[in-house]
Amino acid sequence: ALTKTIENLNHGLHGEDGAGGKKGELATLEEEFKNKCWAQKQKHDAKLFGAFEGFRGNSEKFKGKVLQERASNSATLESLEALEKKAETVFGPTPTVEQSIPSIETAKVVAHESDAILKKRVIGKENVDIAAMIKKLGNSDWVRGGRAFYEANETVCPFCQRSTTEAFTQSLNEYFDETFETDSKAIDDLATNYKTDTARLQQQIASVIGIPSRFLDIEKLKAEKELLDSRVTINIQRLASKRKEPSQIVELESISNVVATIKALIDAANVLVAEHNKMVTNLAQERRDLTAQVWKYLLDEEIKTDLPLYETKRDGLNRAVAEITAKIVTATTDKGTKTTEIRALEKETTSIQPTIDGINMLLSSFGFRCFSLCKSDSGTCYKLVRSDGADAKETLSEGEKAF
Q1: Tens digit of each residue's pLDDT (9 = 90 or more) over 47-66
Q2: Distance between CA atoms of 147 and 172, rounded to whole angstroms?
Q3: What spatial distance separates the first Cα and last Cα of the chain, rounded to whole Å?
């Protein structure tokens, strides 16, 4: 009974061919309403095309726009004659609003140039017994570089291959004390941050060049970017040198004047963009107002009767689909429960059916579909059958027999 119920419900939902039923009715309704909406676009497109911009090439999107306007349009209703006359000037060839050029962030990059660590000679602690020799030779960076080999060689001098004393190791560690390590980290951080911040700045400028504004002097901007790129490259090399030899004083090539010129170019272009946009603002508002009035005309005059009928039928069909779907879910759940109860009852009776069900479930769990067990005509024996019900006993392959 439940199987029949589910079958009837599915028939009501999808129809006999899977394209009917309530869902089929809903699809037909949507298609018919879409065509009615599209007919209005074709009817008025020649004179009111500007109001349909963005929806002229797709009937489904046009129908969606109709429903959107239905929910939100509060424009005044004008006559078709008045709309068409106004459209002659408002929707004619006119300048469009231009996008302003994104500003660039330069403060962080320029600030790196005055970092105090650049002018600091980063050397070890001077009151250690080996400090005098290192200072005399001026080879603090050389000693620092050799520490890695010294530690990797287990405190054996990597040059003379002689073991050193614990006191020497302690002196070496004390010379490169916590202050030295902190300053070294500051150099590393500066080099990393400078590279990251300048890369971000260069990408911002490249994006501006990639989408050029007609109000921007692109050629001059490109020339300034080339100058910026060359100075950034030099500075990255100098920072790499500072990382390698912390005792050296380094001065970065200033990019402040370059980025100031670039910002000035962008600011000047944005002034022109703002003036242009102010000029077309009133026209843009008129276009928006007229567009809303055109959609209002379609809603209240052209499809005034079609729209509420469509909404009533659509809402009714959606409710029916939801109710039928819920009933299918309930009936399917009940069917599963009853199937479980039947199997439990079969196990309690003197019957070969539980064995048949158990073996068939085992075959299914192995993914085996070549044959299954069923009850023989006598009702007391088993037989092997194919999926179409044919007797499989005489047609078993060697592999099937073994299985």
Answers
A1: 999 999 999 999 999 999 99
A2: 8
A3: 37
CB atoms inside a 10 Å sphere around CB 314: 16
174, 128 in Cβ contact below 8 A? yes
Task: Tell me if 28 sits within 8 A of 21, measured CB to CB.
Answer: no
Reported as a single tens digit per residue, the pLDDT across 99-158 is 899 988 888 899 998 888 888 776 544 544 444 444 544 445 555 555 656 566 566 766
Predicted TM-score (pTM) of this structure: 0.43
Structure confidence by residue, pLDDT tens digits, 195-218: 999 999 999 999 999 988 888 999
Asked whether the beta carbons of 73 and 296 are under 8 A apart, the reply is: yes
Cβ-based neighbour number of residue 286 at 10 Å: 14
Residue 41 CA to residue 33 CA, distance in Å, equals 13
**Shortest CA distance to 381 belongs to which of 355, 345, 348?**
355
Rounded-to-integer distance, Cα 339 and Cα 58, Å = 49
Nearest C-alpha neighbor of 276 from the set 97, 31, 84, 29: 97
- Helix H, strand E, coil C: the string for the chain is CHHHHHHHHHHHHHCCCCCCHHHHHHHHHHHHHHHHHHHHHHHHHHHHHHHHCCCCCCHHHHHHHHHHHHHHCCCCCCCHHHHHHHHHHHCCCCCCCCCCCCCCCCHHHHHHCCCHHHHCCCCCCCCCCCHHHHHHHCCHHHHHHHHHHHHHCCCECCCCCCECCHHHHHHHHHHCCHHHHHHHHHHHHHHHHHHHHHHHHHHHHHHHHHCCCCCCCHHHHHHHHHHHHHHHHHHHHHHHHHHHCCCCCCCCCCCHHHHHHHHHHHHHHHHHHHHHHHHHHHHHHHHHHHHHHHHHHHHHHHCCCHHHHHHHHHHHHHHHHHHHHHHHHHHHHHHHHHHHHHHHHHHHCCCCHHHHHHHHHHHHHCCCCCCEEEECCCCCCEEEECCCCCECHHHCCHHHHHC
CB 306 within 8 A of CB 66: no
Q: Say what percent of the chain tops pLDDT 90.
A: 46
